[in-house]
Amino acid sequence: MVQAHVKGDRMGDYTVVNLMEVEDQAPGFGLAPNLEARFAREALGLQTSGLSYQRLAPNFRMPFGHTHGEQEEVYVILEGSARMALDDEVIELSRWDAVRVPRETARSFEAGPDGVAFLAFGAPRTPETEGADARPIPGWWPDE
Predict the structure, then answer these.
(1) DSSP string computed for 104-127
(2) Residue at 74 is within a domain
(3) Is residue 17 one of the residues assigned to a domain?
């Protein structure tokens, strides 16, 4: 269970959550140990956006790409390096690179030789029902 510190009063409110305490969703999709995926919007009580922490093992390529119906996303590389496929282009990313991706652009990641860890921010917040906004593309990578 996530331990959240929530403050709410007339002076303002906030929520503090350690992302490593948010449940890793990757095992439930058969993607562990190559992928760690912690989706924190519920734990943080986000009203208008989403946040996830993801870590890919060295040289692991996500087995799918995706687009969104509404969400624009920003990805920030925290550790390691990656190749990121964006529609028909593949770009190289390293620590502290930030990439904005519009909703309709197909995207996917492949970790570099040391793996990669990144944060993904998305807005606006969309419905919780599966497939409501994210549109997975199984087996997608533009150079294959």
Answers:
(1) TS-EEEEEEEEEEEEEEEEES---
(2) yes
(3) no
Q: Is 113 within the bounds of a domain? A: yes
Range of the domain at 92: 24-138
At residue 41, what is the residue type? R
Count of domains observed in the chain: 1
pTM score: 0.89
CATH, residue 105: 2.60.120.10
d(CA 41, CA 17): 10
Q: What is the pLDDT of residues 88-113, one digit of tens each?
A: 999 999 999 999 999 999 999 999 99
Structure tokens at 68: 């969104």
Whether 116 and 55 have beta carbons less than 8 Å apart is answered as yes
Distances (CA, A) of 140 to 62, 99, 103, 108: 9, 19, 16, 8
Cα distances (Å, whole numbers) of residue 44 to 3, 19, 87, 107, 128: 10, 10, 31, 25, 15
**114: its two tokens:** 């040391």
Note whether 39 and 122 are within 8 A (CB): no
**pLDDT above 90 for 1:** no
Residue labelled with tokens 């807005």: 123
